[in-house]
């Protein structure tokens, strides 16, 4: 069969009507208007089916328009549809709920409030206190991870006996689940038989209850998170250290440059970008930290270690303030996006100056 004949078979409309770009635009716009209007004006039961029918009609129109024109797009369409159903649609749905008064444990339909949920969340002093607690944990844990990871990278840059096996042991915490790490450190801090308490008993004669005070509980979370994620920083920094050309160090030795000068002029320029990348990743993850504070302290003593993620969980799944939790979640998302864009702005400006 010739290529012309095959093309004509692929592009043959058969019994289906031909959909032009103008017709497709009209159908999609009409489907959006029908779906939104049904959700606003119809009862919840009929509105669901009307909106679903409008979406199905728009999808069928898009498939018919792409048939014979964009075969590649049709091949990836199922994956994009699954991505939309599993990820994008829940995000849009939760974002829509943030503008309504709705509780998941009640059968009452949502009531339109506009921006009232966002105003109440931003005016709540408890939210700002949780954000301050989260910021403090982020500063402490990210600083500890950067310092420990950098020192570990300097250690493993050199070759020594048993380096491979010791490196495997150091990387192990990063591969564990949060539940395993939380359970391990909970027993580690246990005042009756925990290792820290027994060590303190040898010197003071009394057990050490580390998580009895807010400062101790904060230190417990920081140590656990730094133990788990310092190897991640080490890997990034180590990748930069091993990429430094050896002849630069040889030339520095000939010039009798000091260790600090070699580090400042040779080593640091090669690892600076990776350090900033590790700083970005760990800052974002630490800002969203939920598992370790929830497993270790439950936000206590009192609410001194309750991060914004733990508070968001309580609002959504313990107090069932669904709309407030959705608004708070998108405020947190906005903060993360702002932090990421600030990082990219400073990195790009530094690159332009260089």
Main features:
single chain, 354 residues, mainly alpha, MetI-like fold, 2 domains, two-stranded antiparallel ribbon, 15 helices, 1% strand, globular, disordered N terminus
Major sheet description: 2 strands, antiparallel
**Rg on CA atoms, Å:** 28 Å
- How many E strands? 2
Report the uncertain regions.
1-14
Strand order in space, largest sheet: 1-2
| CATH fold description of the largest domain | MetI-like fold
Helical proportion? Answer: over 70%
Total domain count: 2
CATH superfamily of the largest domain: MetI-like
Distance separating the two termini: 59 Å
Which structural class should the secondary elements be placed in? mainly alpha
Question: Any chance you could write out the topology, listing elements then pairs?
Answer:
Elements: H1 3-11, H2 21-41, H3 44-66, H4 71-97, E1 100-101, E2 111-112, H5 116-122, H6 125-156, H7 163-175, H8 178-188, H9 195-204, H10 214-242, H11 246-254, H12 259-287, H13 291-296, H14 308-317, H15 322-353
Antiparallel strand pairs: 1-2
Helix pairs in contact: 2-3, 5-15, 6-10, 6-12, 7-10, 10-12, 12-15, 14-15
Notes on the structure:
This protein has 354 residues and is mainly alpha-helical. The chain folds into 2 domains: 14-116, no CATH class; 120-353, MetI-like (MetI-like fold), CATH 1.10.3720. It has 15 helices and 2 strands. A two-stranded antiparallel sheet has the order 1-2. The longest helix has 32 residues, at 125-156. The protein is globular. It starts with a helix and ends with a helix.
